Amino acid sequence: MKILAFLLCVASLTKGRVKMLELSNWSLSAMLAMSFAGMAAAQPVTATVHANQQTAAPITRLIFGGFMEPATTRVWAEMLTDRKFLNEINSKPQAVPATGGFGRRGPQNRWIPVGADQFVTMDRAQAYAGGWSPVVRLEAGTPHGIRQLGVSLRAGRAYTGRVVLAGTPGVKVDVSLTWGPNLADRQTVSVRIRTAEYAKYPVSFISRADTAQGAFEIAAMGSGSFHIGATSLMPADNVSGFRADMIRMLKEQGIEIARWPGGNFVSAYDWRDGIGDADKRPPRRELARHTLESNDMGIDDFMVFCHLVGSEPYIAIDAGRGDDHSAAEEVEYVNGAATSRLGKMRAANGHPAPYGVKIWGIGNEMYGPWQWGYMPNNYFAEKHTLIVQAMRKIDPTIKVIASGATPEEMSWTYIENRQFNSFPGRETVSDKVPYAFGSKYDWTGGLLANAADYIDYLGEHFYGYPDWYVDEATQQFVPSDEPLEDKVRRMSNRVEFKFEAWDEYVKRMPYLKDKDIKFAFDEWSPRGRQVPAGGPAAASDNPMLNSLTEALVYHEFFRHSDKVGLAVATGGMGMMAMDANGEAIGLRTDGLVMKVLHDHFAGALPVEVTGNSLQHDVKGTVAVDKAAHPSGSPTYPLDVFAAIAPDHKKLELSVVNPTETVQDCELNLAGVRVAATAKVWRITAPSGPTSVPARAGGLLSGPPATMTETTLEQTPRTITLPPASISVYEFEVKQ
Fold first, then answer.
1. Per the confidence metrics, is the pTM higher than 0.85?
2. Which residues, 6 or more positions from 674, have their beta carbon under 8 angstroms from its beta carbon?
3. List of residues 6+ apart from 125 with CB closer than 8 A
4. By CB neighbour count within 10 A (0-12 exposed, 13-18 middle, 19+ buried), where does 126 fall?
5. Buried b vs exposed e over 38-56: b needs ≥16 C-beta within 10 Å?
6. pLDDT tens figures, 572-619
């Protein structure tokens, strides 16, 4: 009967499925297990942990990374927009950028005149930072100056700031913070201009009310005039310019590596704009997001951030508009001795000791025509080589990340651009996907063929729509009608393809076997897209969809720890729960996923997990949004990963139940003796609302997610997993 069932199973497979089985070298016993996995509820999923069989290298802590791009990051504490006046100040309606949006920062606060427009003009002759500075002409009895609305304030909170002023000596300038419409709803600090030259004047305030519509105002009456060179306002509890709440949460979350300054941003970023006196750094038109960049957070500030959080710095250099000379100078500024030309400049800026940054990225998504400085692959491979040669000449110890893209990434990106126009202005390609290895769309293959000696890590990005899959016949994303356990595998299957791609590259270029090139997954994240009316009714209705997806991605990173050098979640710096005032008050569910996996698996030694139920195929197109071999452990529908702690004193087990029902799993611990008790940390769907209305409309995230911690009095033989859950079990190993 069993043989008959097996034969029926094989007979029902498509040719493609049979080929997949051949590619993955599945054994006869494994296929038999697959054939019976769905037969009867009487045969529960079984997972055997072979604790004495290490399967891969230790899991690097650098897998737990966060992405920082000045256009997206929320860690900097500055509360005023355009504080060095890139834009002209007037009361005319604000123009909407040609792209129809305001970049990733959203609509930004602006400066408007206090009083009539003609009393505020922009002066290029006496500019303080950038191309011009506002000058305010005064008159008796009527205040004139500038004001910025939309400042979010908390009752009882102290704020600190400064204004840089020049003008007629003796003019009294009132700097005010307001939190309401009445005269009593403000605090004013008056300063006397001392000199016609620019000087800094500190100010401090305490708000007496909660508001999202506060205002910061600089005005004066009398005769003469005054210039405003720069302004600043931060919470008084900021830590070296960073938000104290964010620093605290990021440390708790376990951010081990921080990538900066981008992202598309970096391809038009001059690092020299971000050093020296922050008030003198020029504001720039930010080309990638069609907004402005204050340059307040430069290299030195980033290094302070990494020290505060305890993370490894990863600096991306401009390989778009930039060149090898600029890249080498950047390395010298960061890592050069204080006696070197650029090291002296760093020391003059208050940082005499070299930073010793080891990880450097050569550009961002240089394969995309949307990138500033884009060029064909063969030209860029030469530019990449020249840049790395120049950087290594300054510091031979650095490790560099190439801006790669396998055919799978190119296929996914171009079909997304074609169908959704998610990023207006990106080119549309009509060639059918999937794209082939060795074709013009094989960007990573071109870099490996022409610049392999100058690559330590392959930088690969991948995003995904769990609710959608790519249909090869129609060449489109199609709304998924699959169960939750299939949707959440969409991105981990893309990870699996990266390793299949590496095997293909080694087959085509055997010399790669002798090179220790690892993957740097330095941008990755699930994306949400609403299913159109009439689509699958159950789409995106489970609040754990993305968190389960992310947990499975980490499991794949862990299983291939010998090939994964680092990973940076695109939203890693934004996994905070925020209250209605925009304050970080805890971690969201995705933040807890990173935290619990970081706390238990950073540095751990992966061990083998076998089971009786193979992962099955999901919808999609091989080499676009899935691999030839399904990701995951042979414990369908569960996913189980296990590792021994670095000190060999604990066995750690992560179990993801991606179904919407309770699941049991028979657990066998082989090759190890464990204590009678065990601990379990568990993340399930949040209870109550996942968002709360902000005071000024819109939504901020609601209460923090919770993770339970339980002590089991006896090591379980069968573990019961709640629906849509991530559970981490910890067993004490007996020596």
1. yes
2. 651, 715, 731, 732, 733, 734
3. none
4. middle
5. eeeeeeebbbbbbbeeebb
6. 999 999 988 889 999 999 999 999 999 999 999 999 999 999 999 999
